[in-house]
Structures are given as C-alpha cells and as structure tokens.
Amino acid sequence: MHFLRKATAGADQVGILSGAFHPPTLAHLALARAALDSGCAGEVLFVLPAAFPHKGYGEVPMEDRLNMVLSSTARESRYSVAVSDGGLFLEIARECRSHYPPQVRLCFLCGRDAAERIVEWDYGPLPTIGEQLEEFELLVAPRDGLYAPPPEVAHAVQALAVDSQIDAISSSRVRERIQSGSGWRHLVPEEIHSMVERLYGGG
Question: What is residue 51's predicted lDDT score, i.e. its pLDDT?
Fold first, then answer.
C-alpha cells in the first residue's frame, strides 16, 4: 500500500472507503463525514486499488482519479489517501496492517447494495466472509433501504447513519448526466468541477 496523504493524528478505528471514484461524489464524502462525526472512525482512508478484481480503469486513469480524490479531501486532516496492491477488502485490510498499530480496528464504509454483494460473494479458495470479518468490520449506510445482515455476520456489521438524499448520488449517475447534457455539478465536490469537466466532457 502506497500513501499519498496520511492523516496526522492517530486513531483507534480507521474507516476505509475503497472505490473506483469514477468520479468522486458528494455521496463518498458524506459516508466519510458520517463515520467521523458519529465517532465510528477517527480517520478515513480513501483507497484506490492498483487493479480492480473484475474491471479496468478505462479512459480515466488511476492518476487522474487520485488527483480528484486528493483535491476533494484536502480540507480534512483526518482523511488519508492511498493506493492498494489488491482490490478485495481482505487484501486491502491486510495491507493496512503494515501501516497501523495492531490494536487499530479497520472498518470498511459502504452502502447497503455494496454490503450485500460483499457478504454474498463467492470467494472460492479465499477465507469465507465470516472469517474475513474477523479481520475487519463493515460500516453500512442505508441506500434505497436498510441493510439486514445475515445473523452469522451481524456482530461485525454496524449501521452508519447518513442523509437519505445521497441515495440519488452515484458516480454512474454523474457520468449519465454528463452524457445526456444534464446538470451534474451538484453531485460532485466543488473542488473538482473543472477536473470532471476536463476528464468527462461535462462542459
């Protein structure tokens, strides 16, 4: 794992927000802010995998996405930004262990839809999701409904309260609105408006 920015103060619990950030949105920042404000995390680590398990970076390369994340998060000293070698939560969590004290709790931030995919995924020869959740936890925000985890993993899943208005915000929605010529600036941080316009053609 390579850090481009590291939070200055130590934290007992780190919230990890891993994604494609294609582009970063106000929903990403809302998740991170909710984790800090609720006390669920003292630091939030924004992570871009060097390679995704099932897709590539496409026309907007990792360097540009990193620059957008760095610009979006620059005002909060408790935000870190890094690139991981692996793309699975388990791989990212294990990479984090080289950079944080062993007593620090690691919690991945995600929405209900992502939590369902993570818990129900067939991990093949890798540890089961129950075994993985012995190494990290999930902080799950409602997204078109609350997440009800299976009983066997519920001990490692915590609800994260966020404004329901972010349900309508996603990176794919931003790209769709740009392609259709609709307004999109209200969905992304102001700091990256010009970058999104340049990279995605949202003029």
Answer: 81
pLDDT > 90 fraction of the chain, expressed in percent and rounded: 86
* CATH code for the domain defined by 2-165: 3.40.50.620
| Separation of alpha carbons 44 and 51, rounded Å | 21
Please state the domain extents for the chain: 2-165
Q: Which position has the token pair 């609105």? A: 177
Give residue-wise pLDDT tens across range 59-113.
Answer: 899 999 999 999 999 999 999 999 999 999 999 999 999 999 999 999 999 999 9
Please report where in the chains the tokens 């920042």 appear, as a residue: 29
pTM attached to this predicted model: 0.94
Cβ contact 41:35 at 8 Å: yes
Q: DSSP string spanning 87-127?
A: -SHHHHHHHHTTTS-TT-EEEEEEEHHHHHHHHH---TTSP
CA dist 145 → 12, 54, 101, 166, 167 (Å): 29, 26, 35, 12, 9
Contact 133, 153 (CB under 8 A): yes
Q: Tally Cβ neighbours within 10 Å of residue 180.
A: 9
Q: What is the mean pLDDT of the chain?
A: 93
